[in-house]
Write a structure and sequence with these properties.
With 398 residues, the chain is α+β, with helices and mostly antiparallel strands. It contains 9 helices and 19 strands. It has a single domain, classed as Anthranilate synthase, CATH 3.60.120.
Length: 398
């Protein structure tokens, strides 16, 4: 029995996971069996119980199938005390974990025909000044010595006519029209859907080997090859972006040290440039050897949530994030995970991610974008970075 959770259905539509989950191939998950979830209004004690039970649930992977699901960012309350996480505005559970009888690798992702539904309304962005003021307050926290860095985000949303189950797949198709990121994911649920086009690996666990690839540092793509190369070169040399990336890489190294063998952690990649269809990113790589008897869920809970979307020190950064954002993030910046019968367990960081939830006789799409604030940050430039990263929202609503 799993006393901390309730049993729920995940619907009949297949779940789709991008090629980063399937070692270069898309994955289609069908035949959902038992699924466990935690209501969005659960408290920290219930979250802690869910995380404990999730270890047991994840250990029983169906032959030829997989265990998959997501954890909302606010599940950190089950691991970290002393932070008052506000609830997220969506209606999805805090966590869903399901067993699927079949995990199928695909040559290409199958989509049904159909266009994106008509947008009923797109409210304007929150006033620029509000976000810039928030960045300025975070910088003040840094100057006072409270933190070294914090990653704050802002939300955009759009209302749609029609039910979530009819809107979800067309929106996901539109999200991927400009190119699928490695950790794209389509998770249809009874309450709505998670639509992700994330480029970021949180953790890969293969046997006892665990690898993390934090992303920190962003530039938009250029309009010409020359401009594009200039922007990539500027990113690679940017003092603020490199310092931010190295700081978060060290944080992840420390998190993984909780569950890895002594002296096994290495950093084979530091501040390399990764080019995506819409942006350039800096990324690093940290790897280590899990201690005997530990598995994927132990690695996840040691490092959750990923330091690249919190800041450092993590606990105080999360407290400031909750204060500045004033609402929960939901699946955004939590994790989407895939634990197959054979092959590595993969955990993504759901950035570039939309959350679709039922709202009366229609549904609403929430998309967040943010960036890391350091002592070298400029509030105006930080706002522009959120604009660059909000291409997922523009893709689904224009």
């Amino acid at each position: 029995m799993l006393p901390a959770v309730s049993t729920t259905g995940v619907g009949t539509a297949p779940w789709l996971l991008g090629p980063g989950f399937g070692a270069g191939a898309w994955v289609r998950l069908t035949g959902p069996g038992e699924a466990i979830s935690l209501p969005r209004d659960a408290g920290p004690a219930q979250m802690a119980g869910m995380l404990k039970d999730a270890r047991v649930f994840a250990a029983a992977v169906p032959k030829g199938g997989a265990v998959a699901g997501y954890m909302a960012y606010e599940m950190a309350a089950g691991l970290e005390g002393g932070i008052d996480f506000p609830p997220s505005p969506d209606s999805l559970p805090l966590m869903v974990m399901a067993r699927f009888d079949r995990s199928e690798r695909l040559g290409a992702v199958p989509f049904s025909d159909g266009l994106c539904p008509k947008v009923a309304a797109i409210p304007p962005d929150p006033p620029r000044a509000l976000y810039e003021d928030s960045v300025a307050r975070v910088i003040n926290h840094i100057l006072k010595g409270d933190i070294f860095q914090a990653n704050i985000s802002r939300r955009q949303f759009a209302a749609f006519k029609g039910m979530a189950e009819d809107v979800a797949l067309p929106l996901f198709r539109r999200l991927l029209a400009g190119g699928a990121a490695p950790y794209a994911a389509f998770l249809p649920l009874e309450e709505g859907a998670v639509l992700s086009n994330s480029p970021e690996l949180f953790l890969k666990v293969e046997g006892r080997q665990v690898t993390a690839e934090p992303i920190k540092g962003t530039r938009p793509r250029g309009d010409t090859p020359v401009a594009d190369e200039r922007l990539a070169s500027e990113l690679a040399a940017d003092e603020k972006e490199r310092a931010e990336n190295i700081m978060i890489t060290d944080l992840l190294r420390n998190d993984l040290a909780k569950v890895c063998e002594d002296h096994s952690i290495e950093e084979p990649v530091i501040c390399a440039v990764r080019t995506l269809p819409h942006v350039h990113h800096l990324y690093s790589r940290v790897s280590g050897q899990l201690r005997e008897g530990l598995g994927p869920m132990d690695a996840l809970l040691a490092a959750f949530p990923c330091g690249s979307i919190t800041g450092a020190p993590k606990h105080e950064a999360m407290r400031i994030i909750a204060q500045e954002e004033g609402e929960g993030r939901g699946p955004y910046c939590g994790t989407i995970f895939y634990i197959p019968d054979e092959g590595p367990a993969i955990f993504s960081v759901p950035i570039r991610t939309g959350v679709l939830s039922r709202q009366g006789d229609g549904c609403r799409l929430d998309v967040r974008s943010g960036g890391g604030v350091t002592i070298l940050s400029d509030p105006s430039r930080e706002y522009e970075e959120t604009v660059d990263k909000a291409y997922s929202f523009r893709a689904m609503t224009t």
